[in-house]
Amino acid sequence: MSSPQRQSIVVIDYNGGNLASAARALTRAAQDCGIAADVTITADPHAVLAADRIVLPGQGAFADCAAGLAAQPGLQDAIIAATDGGTPFLGICVGMQLMATRGREHGVTPGFGWIRGDITLMSAPGLRLPQMGWNQLDFTPGAHPLTEGLAPDAHGYFVHSFALSGHDPATLVATTDYGGAVPAIVAHANRAGTQFHVEKSQKVGLRILANFLRWAPAPATGGALGPS
Question: What is the pLDDT averaged over residues 23-47?
Answer without folding.
Answer: 96
